[in-house]
């Protein structure tokens, strides 16, 4: 059996300072140049987590912002943000694992599939109704625009992005 390790290696110590001793259960994106995803188990309480690494800050920032500001009211349907890490040339988040089956693997019958999509729509609506922003675009982890040229008008934003 191959021993799985986190990349970058420095991240191992950061996660250990958050969880204590832990085991890497699986590498879900082996060899990915963009993101890494590892399933972890804390030794003390056997709780499961996912660690996601990012090679680009512009992808990491919006996810951190979303976990900190948008998803707290969506429990138990979404993971909880446990920790945020940043190092030289990499960024990462540690989130709790939630039980369930990936939709595309669940094999739901049409009525159950419809109900699942309906619930997803309700949760999306809840996010949209939770806040009113002043501009359109991707936020950094503090809620400021990442794009140099952000827009206050949605059509201008969509057209500018090729939408």
TrEMBL record:
Domain called Aminoglycoside phosphotransferase: residue spans = 43-134
The source's superkingdom equals Bacteria
- Pfam families documented for this protein: APH
What is this protein identified as?
Aminoglycoside phosphotransferase domain-containing protein
Q: Tell me what organism the protein belongs to.
A: Paenibacillus typhae
């Amino acid at each position: 059996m191959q021993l799985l390790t986190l990349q970058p290696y420095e991240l191992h110590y950061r996660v250990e300072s958050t969880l204590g001793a832990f085991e890497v259960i699986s590498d879900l994106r082996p060899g990915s140049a963009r993101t890494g995803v590892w399933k972890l188990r804390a030794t003390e309480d056997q709780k499961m987590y996912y660690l996601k690494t990012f090679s680009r800050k512009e992808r990491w920032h919006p996810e951190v912002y979303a976990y900190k500001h948008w998803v707290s009211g969506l429990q138990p349907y979404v993971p909880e943000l446990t920790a945020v890490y940043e190092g030289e040339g990499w960024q990462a988040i540690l989130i709790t694992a939630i039980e369930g089956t990936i939709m595309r693997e669940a094999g739901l019958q049409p009525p159950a599939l419809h109900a699942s999509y309906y619930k997803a729509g309700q949760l999306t609506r809840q996010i949209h109704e939770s806040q009113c922003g002043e501009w359109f675009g991707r936020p950094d982890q503090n809620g400021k625009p990442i794009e140099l040229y952000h827009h206050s008008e949605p059509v201008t934003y969509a057209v500018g992005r090729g939408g």
